[in-house]
Amino acid sequence: MLALGIVLALGHLLSFSALPISGADISSTTTAPTSASTVTTCGAHPTSASKAPAGAVVVDLTKSMTGAFSSLNAALASLPSDSSCQTIFIMPGTYVEQVTVNRPGQTVIIGYTTEDPGRGYSGNRVTVSYSRGLSVSPLPVGHSDSETAVISTASSDIAFYNIDFINTDNLNGTIANYVTLAGSTYGNHIGFYGCSLIGWQDTLLTGSTNGYQYYESCYIEGAIDFIWGYSAAYFKGCTIAAKRKSSCITAHSRKDATGIGVYAFDHCLVTAAAGYASALKSGVYLGRPYSAYAKVVFKNSYLDSVIQPIGWKNWSATDPRIDHVTFAEFNNTGPGNWQNNAAARKSFGHASLLTSDDYPLSAVMDSTSWIDSTYSNSISVPAGLSALQTKDPSSTNLSNLSFSMVSTTSSSEADSTAPADGDYIVSKSPIKGKTVYSSFTEVIAAIQSISSKQVITVFIYPGVYQEQIVFNRSGTTIFRGYSEDPSNYAQNQAILQNSHGVDTQADQSNSDSATLYSRAQYLQLYNINLNNIFGQAHNYASLGFASGNNGYTSFYGCQITGNQDTFDLNKGTSVFAYNTLVQGSIDFIWGAGSAYFLNSTLVPNTDGGSIAAMKRASSTDPAGLVFDQCTVSSAQNVGAGSIYLGRPYNNYSRVAYINTYLDNSIAAAGWSVWSKTNPQTDRVLFGEYHNRGPGATTSKRATFSQQLSDADAVQFQLANFFANQGTSWINMTYVKTTPFSKY
Fold it and tell me: pLDDT, tens digit, for every residue of 525-562?
């Protein structure tokens, strides 16, 4: 969305040629698939979404079907540019591409589902995803939000069934003022049935000022103004899932009172996205006006406790835009509805509680003949987000092929601001009626001998705990730091800190300097900072974290800071880090273990260093480092071209950067030898795959590194990378970013 204070109608998105994706097409002409087909008249309700309709163009990622295309872009390019109705059927899989539909005739695109087509999204087995965002503070000249969209429509009469569209860039909102659209819908008579649209800021743009759109039984997830634009759009039986406190669901605009634009939400569930409920309570607004003639109605819907009591919001304090708005509610239920918050709603002064349904489908749309109404009359408000229904990007439902191996250790998130019954408590001050330990050292002594069959949770209240810890316990132990926003590690308030360095030229173990040295069997850390503030001294290691004893450690929303050798993985250890920051100088993620960093931030803080330094015993050793959808963002004092992605701790070093943003601190060569006299590059696997940013240019990369092919990258998928260890020790309930899958 454009910056505050700017209201401009974006022009129609120009059609662009198919973006390249991996995999060549089997055929450049349309041929009937060899699998069983069903008879469905083009444009009519699909009779099945597990078999291709007769005459449909088929997309099949596995390339196992004769005449099928391996990408949706290629299938669309094969369609005639005429007024004929055309159908595309997509077989299960995750398709990584940006797609635009732009042809004169009617187009129907159906994704494989295990449910009745269009009835819901929980059975979807097709995901179209892409990672692309745009900073809008300010909006660069010549660019628009639309260019980030995973799916775009630039023509009319288009219907989508049972496809999940996900923009995987910035899914947890680490980058501010950064739009990531899942859908950009221009044209007229656009329908989505049983689909998902997932992003962060500006997830769904309804772009046409004179277009009509219909969304039925869909899932729409985002954080800031995540349903926005200018069109007339009707949402029936949809789940609207928010991810950010103090933000708005809708931002609608009309030029004046004669504009057709309106948003009507009918029999919808308005709730928090999976894992965000505790952070969003009473904090999300139904909408704010993108222009002074905004028009939004919620009716017959369930508004749960995430809704702010006042309900609606001005555009901004200095530019309210409320003179001619229509913000209305009718017959809603739930703790967030008007009746349960009447005084607050009335205090806004520019919203109304209707006494009748003034916005039926027939009044909002220009006509209803183009809408698939097969299920519309039987739709009720969706139930709450169950494990089956949740379209969290880590959910196994998004791609049955890619994520069936990922398991969870709990079905819901714990309260991040208060301990649960049975938790051990660390606090700087006493708490009435509770047993409290004043330090990590004290609580560890208390839990050390408890049976390994018992899962122990330690809740840490805010404070800087000046300690150096070696933790060794069998069984599973959880350390959870107090946080009012667990999705944002910058808000962490539980800090474990020490100031100790080890002379790397002396007969000492670098692990001895670690703020936390984990020798535990299973350790999970949530919203805790591990800081080593020893500072920079030549040939001195100052670790924030070290792991040993063949243990399994996972981080969720943490920060680990130090300098040389910040993050140490001893042989046999396994680490998973999600939405976590690691900062250091020389070889600051290193060792002989296995670590997978997902949507995390790497911060080099000194010129001339390498991020990774890794070794393996042999080419079959499972050790290695994977950085998946991460961000390399150097400290301000670091010069351009001065940082290396990694160097080989031995000849079998294995490191991969996947879909990662590399800033301008990365050297043109990308990778470094160990030393001039001992390069250690003979058998290394230093790989890059689909990275972006000024540091991702590959023309001058070191000859011992490689740009990974699709086949090369498979070994770095989460389940394959941890094939020996399994993934049951990772709590995917807290993971909001989809690990990359087979492209």
Answer: 999 999 999 998 999 999 999 999 899 999 999 999 99
Amino acid making up residue 89: F
* CATH code where residue 609 lies: 2.160.20.10
Query: What's the token pair of residue 636?
Result: 């301000």
pLDDT tens-digit series, residues 214-230: 999 999 999 999 999 99
Is 628 among the residues known to form the active site?
Answer: no
For the chain, the distance separating the N- and C-terminal CA atoms, rounded to the nearest angstrom, is: 30
266 is catalytic: no
Q: 202, 266, 392, 587: which one is catalytic?
A: 202
Going by the DSSP 8-state scheme, the letter that residue 211 receives in this structure is: -
Q: Which residue has the higher pLDDT, 233 or 175?
A: 233
- Pull the structure tokens for residue 111: 């994704």
Q: Which of 25, 157, 225, 423 is catalytic?
A: 225
User: Quick one: 374 and 427 in the same domain?
Assistant: no
How far is 71 from 65, CA to CA, in rounded Å? 13
Prediction pTM value: 0.55
> Of 327, 159, 335, 340, nearest to 252 (Cα)?
327
Please choose, from the candidates 191, 252, 198, the residue with its C-alpha nearest in 3D space to the C-alpha of residue 376. Answer: 191
- Residues 435 and 306 both lie in one domain: no
**Poorest-confidence range of 105-114, 277-286, 510-519?**
277-286
Task: Write out the residue range of the structural domain in which residue 435 sits.
Answer: 423-456
Asked whether the beta carbons of 532 and 515 are under 8 A apart, the reply is yes
pLDDT, one tens digit per residue, over 474-503 is 999 999 999 999 999 998 999 999 999 999
Say if residue 342 is in the same domain as residue 439: no
CB half-sphere exposure, 721, CA atoms < 13 A: 30
